[in-house]
Predict the structure.
Amino acid sequence: MMLILTEKPNVANKIASSLGKPIQKKDGKVSYYIIESKNIIVASAVGHIYSLRQARPIDDYPFFDYIWVPVYKYNENSKYVRDYEKTLKKLSKKCKEFVNACDYDTEGSVIGYNALRFACRADPERTRRMKFSTLTKKELQEAFENLLPLDFPMIESGLTRHEL
């Protein structure tokens, strides 16, 4: 089974509809799509599921001891993100292959990479990148047919921006 991760719920719907005849499912309040004929699950994040926080209290500067944590653990307005993380964890247990189909920019690369590595525990060797700039059926199909390796230069750029 393959899990395609998008940055936003409406993009998950669009990709699923472009790749086959999806069946919409729900895990609590979170929708995801299954394309049975292709053994694909399409699910979404809701932007950043993880963010940097201090690993321990600041006693001295400079301080560069950070860890990635779920945003709902420190932001009261982001409690709904827990449902998306929980759904990704649950769905990923069924999958051996993963695709980052978040926006093709540094933030999309970071959002997808973090969700796939933390929530899904995805092996980077079994994870690909879907590159598209519009949500047309033709472009989404072509992007899926031509999956790329993970975009580590963009991922590293985005991770560095967060750390600085």
